[in-house]
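Board notes (copied after class):
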Amino acid sequence: LPLRGLERLFVGPRRPVTGPHVQIVCRLCLWIIGLRWHREGQPMRGPGAVVANHSSWLDILVLNAAMPVFFVSKAEVAGWPGINILTRVTNTHFVARDPKLARQQAEEFAARTRAGHRLLFFPEGTSSDGHRVLPFKPTLFQGFLDPALPGDLAIQPMSAHYHAPPGRDPRFYGWWGNMDLGPHLLAVLAQPRQGSVTVRLMPEIPVAGETRKTLAAKVEAALTAGLEPIICVGETLEQRQAGDAVAVVSTQVAGSLPTSLSGKAFAVAYEPVWAIGTGLTPTLEQIEEVHAAVRA
């Protein structure tokens, strides 16, 4: 914070020193926790913003470790104990869901973009279990179409795919629905052997010529592909939003499962392959058939 005060005196709102400094601190925090991370792709260089999937409070550290960003969050988060400290230190851009403030907030967004800030949005509007992308809210993309923004503005999709520690539920790092922050934070920090996370930086999507709906659709498609999402068969919208486990089949395996598994209640995910019962527990032989299908 003292460094930021000196920086403001010389360069105003730009963050040429403290931006990378926050990135180093986030990497250090992940090292202390023991969560290994890997980045695929390169950060954008021109003017623009970043859009990512949201699955955990760890996203603050993980996404900042991959590239210097400034998060955009709903105004209520500013009052959340613990999280509010992280958001203030990382200079989070808070927005209020008030149509009367839309013009003012668009101008603030444009000013920060002109200052070189790489703002990061979570267009799902909430967090998921980390293995799926929830439907986007296209209204959040309206700010990218403001005429005050640079004409060559682009959006870079960025996905974070968490890999649970051995023996843990694949959704171990996901913090979603009505889960309390405290118990989840303690469970993650107390884990003796951590897992890992892969951050994918995808090709930029130019804003010019797009509408908020077409822009949202293109970014959502890119993030969905980057996450290698799973298809949930027979789930309701409420189950999808809650992250409940229901007969889940990966996109790679859906067309090649053995007929003997047809209609069984089981789940297939990624790294490693795992199966869980949802009413019917799969036998050892059935799990072996799933493994063989995945390998094929």
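Comment from the instructor: The chain is about 35% helix and 15% strand. The radius of gyration is 20 Å.
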